[in-house]
Amino acid sequence: PEATAWARQAVHRHGSLCRTAGDVAIDTMSGRGPVSVLANPIGDGPPWVVRRYWRGGWVRFLQDRFLRLGRPRSFKELETSVRLRELDIATPRVLVAASYPAGLFYRADLVTELVPEASSLADVLLGGGKASSRPWNSEQREQAIARTVDLVRRMVTVGVRHPDFNAKNILVSRNLGGIQISLIDLDRCQLTSPSDSGNVKLLLRRLTRSIRKIARVRSDTVPDHEMRLIQDGALSQ
What is the pTM of this model? Predict the structure, then answer.
């Protein structure tokens, strides 16, 4: 309730959550557009992350505008996040979903809790990202791969279909409890029957292709033995 009240006030004053966050951000992260991090505005809890949805691919010319067909992506992501957490698949807690209709289009924002000390799997294996200022050692990298394989198996078991599953949409965090994995970018996720969600081998092949693609863009490589750990996960299902 407190987060919803804050969001309503922010939209009333500034027109959108994204604009509000941009004015008081304590940090920014990269994405398709700027992603703002702000100190928790309602208490002493974790910082909040405010993200505007942006188009990609051949429709990127629309920037942050989406046709008003069906439910807004932010609401879909909120609902999917709640369901995945119920199914024991970790994903950042969604606090607020917002949509701003205008004519045929809408814009949308999402507010989540910040996952501390986190990097994408791509940044863990290839370097990069702000959390990489403290390098990931070989044991942590191998644990991140093992946890990712576990995540893929869980996704298949409960029937999660993630159309954008790749190494940038797997968040790896480290704390005293060890390495934790979270699934992000859920706005196009679907919950299906396990038989329709793919299989471990296919998902891990997609993952390895995405890692190799990102590595080519960054002119970098992932050690062969780490790539084999992912492939072995597919063979041992």
Answer: 0.89
